[in-house]
Amino acid sequence: MSENEKHPVVRVEYPEWVDGVVEWDRTYATDAERMRLAISISRENVERESGGPFGAAIFESVSGRLIAVGMNSVVRLNNCTLHGEMVAFMMAQQKIGSFSLNGPNLPVHELHTSCEPCAMCLGATLWSGVQRVVYGAAREDASLLNFDEGPVFPESYEYLEKRGIEIVRNVLRDEARAVLELYRQKSGKIYNA
Amino acid sequence: MSENEKHPVVRVEYPEWVDGVVEWDRTYATDAERMRLAISISRENVERESGGPFGAAIFESVSGRLIAVGMNSVVRLNNCTLHGEMVAFMMAQQKIGSFSLNGPNLPVHELHTSCEPCAMCLGATLWSGVQRVVYGAAREDASLLNFDEGPVFPESYEYLEKRGIEIVRNVLRDEARAVLELYRQKSGKIYNA
Fold this sequence. Notes:
The structure is a homodimer of 193-residue chains. The first copy, chain A, has 193 residues and is α/β, with parallel strands linked by helices. The first copy, chain A, is 37% helix and 16% strand. The longest helix of chain A is centred in the N-terminal third of the chain and has 17 residues, at 31-47. At the A-B interface, strand 1, helix 3, helix 4 and helix 6 of A face strand 1, helix 3, helix 4 and helix 6 of B. Strand 1 (10-12) of chain A pairs antiparallel with strand 1 of chain B, so a sheet runs across the interface.
């Protein structure tokens, strides 16, 4: 079924601008450098009007090698599941050819996301195989724009932590929040509001 | 970027067997008929060895028209996000050309899934626009196979219900559970265990 006209085929790819904002071959040594990339992607997504104000990236924890990025693509691709984190998970797994980023022959991977993950993305984090999550802006920052994060509770984070996933909060929060504010100023579309 | 060799492209499509098990043009009048389709898909996914024992379908609530189906495609497509419900949401939205199944010019849609949704799928349910969720087997049935449902709490369901989403539990639970048992007998791969 390489080309199936009868049924829908969902195709997820980066927007054209991705290579203008992402330096694929450099090393991202610190949390600040990694988060700054996620925030740059969120900002570019707003400025290009290609989606919501959310960006993400997946790195090898030790080497700092960049594996994949993600940007909110809900409106661009007519797909409610394509939050920035989800696009990053999908692209990373497609790239390495595995449904988990955690395996005996794989380095440890981590997710950096410009804003606290919603319920869907937090669930996917558990399945993704990343072993560390770093976020920028907080749930409350997104709520000011009427973005709903869904059923996420303190127990949700405890659930992930019990399975060995480290959570790091509010890294470069002000920079991340500034993109949310930019989006508000541009009167961006708040889907699922 | 119609063909981009530099970056991964994620392509989500049905397995070839879908038309053998899904009657696309008939009307599914009752919850039992709708659930039986979701269970048939879960069973076929196991028998064809194309994925985990989970199937889903999205219907127009009033007309009973079938919009899309989904089957667990995590291993088949190397993508941790592709649970049955997620594939169903993506396919339905691709088909109608909207990131939400809830809109002023759209009929009410509902999800039927052969097993209680995990945390990711429950979050996505909120964003999908379906206004009713019907599930077959329960979380405890899946747990017996070491499938983890993630951070889902009673409050998670309350969150959805407060936003107007009706939850209907354990429809044809025994039939749905039988597919989980079939999977166990075939010693299926329990990913993310």
